[in-house]
Amino acid sequence: MLPFYAQFDQALPPCIYVACSGGRDSLVLLDSLCQLSRQLNVPLQVLHVNHRLQVISDDWQQQVEAFCMARGLACVSLTLDWQADRVGQVVGQVNEQTARQARYQALANWLDTHHTAAAPPVLVLAHHADDHAETFLLNLCQGTGLRGLVGMRAVRVQHEFGLPLLLWRPLLTISRATISAYADAKALPYVDDPTNVGTHNRRAWLRAQVLPLLKAEFGGWLDNITRTSANLADAEYIVNAQAEQDLAACLLTGDAADWTPTQSRLDIAQVTVLPLPRVRALLRLWLAYGQPYAPPQQVITQIIALLGLAEQSPLSVQSQIHWQGVTVRRYQMTLYRLDAHYASEHAHWADSTRVQAAVAAMLATLTPKPDFYPMFSLRRPHAGERFRRQGKSFHEPLKKLCQRLAIASWQRDLLWVIEHDGQARALWLPQRLIWLAA
């Protein structure tokens, strides 16, 4: 058995799920886990994803199922249907990244249905040290930050596919050569993926054309990259710890503007006093929440310009910045992050029936209750309408009132007028009442 269990510092799960393609790496992993499973008395559940992208895909599935049957292992095969599940995908045009996304989504969907324990399921993957080094080099050449250079981690929780998955990569410090020697010594019946040979994609090209040169010139190249990546992981930890402190200091929470979890706000006055490197780190952390990848430098640069921290013509500064379903907007001295669900949440409050119920519930909690409760009606503000707030001696246009109360321009179509006997008594926004003079 390969000596990797010491890497797993989590509580022992009731079941270990193993992703197995039938290739050399995953069969070596599965064989080692069989021994570990017996020692720890933890059952294994093997999950195979048939991508149906190659002529021999069904043969791989049958071989994995036969391997598991011979060892008394539970095995489930998940078959991807590209036409049904991914409209517009042509099998011949599916790239490595698309196949990876589809594979993880299929695994997450199955686990969401069948995993019943409270803790996230532990999904074991067969990535090894050479895979990690290849990812490091690819990310380096494509341009990346610390997160990309740190690359894969031995243990981490992934939230990308709806269900939290605790990914465990026990082979991450073990070389391809060691894994191959293990497979040959035990005569494991693995299959060779033809996409690993040739130069048809960047990883295969790197493996065929570049790595042999590195091995010839730098004998310890693999250990050196592994050590460098570990050092960068320490640096990333320090940067993120500072960014978390800065984010906590700049985040606006706990007032009436916090009407939806799909929105997050930063105090621009607090952000702009920070040194620019810390601003960039803070923005990366803020934007990356709930996302599988860190935002690219271009997006961070655009937000820096929106904050007024870059020497850039005002005409070239974008008023809205979009990335991965997230929209970043500025209003006055507040920076807003609106996630992909904000639009549907916004549309929810266009329904007068929902608003009527929400207003009634809000008024019912007040002590004392307003004199018009529960007899009130709702309407939208009229164009050019003026209002006098409670305690004020003057009327003002709705636009001016919203500016005074820092109601962002894109939130104003959420406003409703609460009326009683034909008189406007209050303005309503989600979680907020603005009282008007009677």
From TrEMBL:
Domain Lysidine-tRNA(Ile) synthetase C-terminal: 376-435
Superkingdom assignment: Bacteria
Function noted in UniProt: Ligates lysine onto the cytidine present at position 34 of the AUA codon-specific tRNA(Ile) that contains the anticodon CAU, in an ATP-dependent manner. Cytidine is converted to lysidine, thus changing the amino acid specificity of the tRNA from methionine to isoleucine.
Full protein name: tRNA(Ile)-lysidine synthase
E.C. number(s) listed in UniProt: 6.3.4.19
Domain notes: The N-terminal region contains the highly conserved SGGXDS motif, predicted to be a P-loop motif involved in ATP binding.
MF terms in GO: ATP binding; tRNA(Ile)-lysidine synthase activity
GO BP, one annotated term: tRNA modification
SMART domains: TilS_C (SM00977)
Sequence positions that bind ATP: S21, G22, G23, R24, D25, S26
An example Gene Ontology CC term for this record: cytoplasm
Catalytic activity: cytidine(34) in tRNA(Ile2) + L-lysine + ATP = lysidine(34) in tRNA(Ile2) + AMP + diphosphate + H(+)
SUPFAM superfamilies listed in its UniProt record: Adenine nucleotide alpha hydrolases-like, MesJ substrate recognition domain-like, PheT/TilS domain
Pfam family, one: ATP_bind_3
Keyword Cytoplasm: yes
Keywords, alphabetical: ATP-binding, Cytoplasm, Ligase, Nucleotide-binding, tRNA processing
